[in-house]
Amino acid sequence: MDISIVKKAPEEAKADVLAVMWTSEGGQPPAASALDKTLGGWLTQTAKEEGFAGKEGETLTLRTEGRLPAAHVVLCGVGRKKDAAAESLRLAAASALQAARKPAGRSLAFALDVPRGTSAAEAAQAAAEGLILGAYRFGAFKTLEPEGPSSAVVLAPSAAFASARRGFVRGRLFAQATNVARDLVNQPAGHLTPLALAKEAERLVAGKTHMSARLMRRAELEKMGAGGLLGVAQGSAHEPVMVHLAYKPRAAKKRVALVGKAVTFDSGGLSLKTAKGMETMKCDMAGAAAVIGAFSALAALKPDVEVHGIFGACENMPSGAALRPGDVVKTMSGKTIEILNTDAEGRVTLADALHFATTLAPDAIVDLATLTGAEMVALGEEITGLMSNRRPLADKVLAAAAQAGEKMWELPLESAYKRELESRVADFKNDTSRWGGCLTAGLLLQEFVAGVPWVHLDIAGPAFAERPFNVYTQSGGTGHGVRTLLEWIERG
Ligand code: BES
Ligand code: MN
Ligand code: ZN
Fold first, then answer.
1. Distances in whole angstroms, Cα of residue 126 to Cα of each of 169, 345, 405, 425
2. Which amino acid residue places its CA nearest to atom 5 of ligand 1?
3. b/e string for 22-41 if b means 16 or more Cβ within 10 A?
4. Cα gap 380→373, rounded to integer Å
5. How many Å lie between the centroid of ligand 2 and the Cα of residue 344?
6. What pLDDT does residue 27 have?
7. Domains in the chain, please, with CATH?
8. Is the CB–ligand 1 distance for residue 437 below 6 Å?
9. How many Cβ atoms from other residues are within 10 Å of residue 466's Cβ?
10. How far apart are CA 404 and CA 488, in angstroms?
11. Quick one: which H or E segment has residue 98?
């Protein structure tokens, strides 16, 4: 789908479908009310007759019968005016797309109104995100029926056109980066092996200015003493690989490291999962996918922040060579972990990836990991569990997430629970009781960040949608975390 932004009033737009935002109260926003006025109150009148209340996500499609250059008008409900914000715009833009879905190949014009409390740039960004995220389909292995508009144009008011266009370009980048992560998560694990994931990351940064990628294979991992990653990988036919991406602009103000869990498939290992529990476990590299997705946008966004992306890719499989319960691994930091449950593998691989990140002396580390089922029990499918060792950094990431429209909620790194990590034979054990399983996993990770300001995002719920979350988040990989990372990095 072609997407662009133009300075134009809705009553002049020549499109198959013209979409306008419609609130649930009287008194419509400028674009809708100007259009309604041109039409002699036809929109208000028809909405009333059809019982269209303008609730968030609701749409009403009308044939214009020659009243306008556009053939159809879609009213996109955004709810009450005072609640309307960036998120209602994402939903409105994606539901406009949905309303214009059939027949395929139509042209859509989306008239942008800027909700109070939102800037023109934020509004245009949200509209671009709603359109591009809403149009996403994963068609690599399925013949998809052609559907949806072939072009979408955002109609921006002339008053704030320059800033609207800036926001639009930013939204397009953020959404495309999110779709990069979605594609990676949706790839079956048989196709996206650890090495294939590493090569994808390498390919996405290849030839871009200030960007580099380093792949560390077995021999190097052994030399570095990455016993956590090597241990988890040892049951698989596929070799592990550690990846270090770097974006180093000249005169960077600070240096951050993004670390992602990259288990391309999690069978549980010898502590085998149930058949049901394994069905979605190709998603266990969604943390790394978010890091790669964010990296795919950095060359264009050009933030003056040095960014490192690190992930230890491997596959968690049972075999005669697999880790056994009771085995001990020595991580890159020198600390040892007793493996009591081979299904608690993410923390073991992250011990090495986080330690590697600390050796780069970053000002902050953010990790993203589909780490625990307990996270989903605590917060459900749509909300990320955030844990941090620094108040100001946690607040910054939470603020970035709110702006990006990604739901995150803070959970405590309760030090009293560290007793759960005590092992009789090693420095730590990887298994803990069921209670607070998300927190104890976070506590183990904390042991490997060496006091560097750090945020841990347990994305087990939101990384993968078993059914669509909303009109712009289809089932499958969601790309959750990408937009928060970009927003946070750009804020500097
Ligand atoms: N990858 C899983 C966590 C997960 C579960 C992510 C469901 C997304 C959806 C992780 O490796 C795991 O298996 N964790 C165990 C830990 C336990 C054995 C301590 C869990 O949560 O059951
Ligand atoms: Mn597991
Ligand atoms: Zn896992």
1. 11, 37, 9, 52
2. 373
3. bbbeeebbebbebbbebbee
4. 10
5. 5
6. 84
7. 2-157 (3.40.220.10), 177-491 (3.40.630.10)
8. yes
9. 11
10. 9
11. helix 86-99
CB 325 near ligand 1, within 6 Å: no
Which ligand is closest in space to the CA of residue 373?
1
273 catalytically annotated: yes
208-257 pLDDT, tens digit each: 999 999 999 999 999 999 999 999 999 999 999 999 999 999 999 999 99
Between the CA of 476 and the centroid of ligand 1 the distance, in Å, is 18
Q: Which residue, among 121, 349, 144, has the nearest Cα to 232 in the 3D structure?
A: 349
Model pLDDT for residues 170-208, shown as the tens digit of each residue: 999 999 999 999 999 999 999 999 999 999 999 999 999
225 lines ligand 1 (CB under 6 A): no
Condensed to tens digits (0 to 9), the pLDDT of residues 361-406 reads 999 999 999 999 999 999 999 999 999 999 999 999 999 999 999 9
pTM for the model stands at: 0.98
Distance from the alpha carbon of residue 454 to the mean position of ligand 1, in angstroms: 22
Interhelix angle 30-38/42-49, nearest 10 degrees: 100
- Of 106, 261, 282, 347, which is the active-site residue? 347
Q: 17-26, 287-296, 363-372: which range is least confident on average?
A: 17-26
Active site (annotated) includes residue 347: yes
Cβ of 403 below 6 Å from ligand 1: no
Catalytic-labelled residue, pool 67, 166, 273, 390: 273
Ligand nearest to the CA of 264: 3
Contact 314, 194 (CB under 8 A): yes
How far, in Å, from the CA of 267 to the mean position of ligand 2? 7
Query: In this structure, are strands 72-79 and 59-63 parallel, antiparallel, or unpaired?
Result: antiparallel
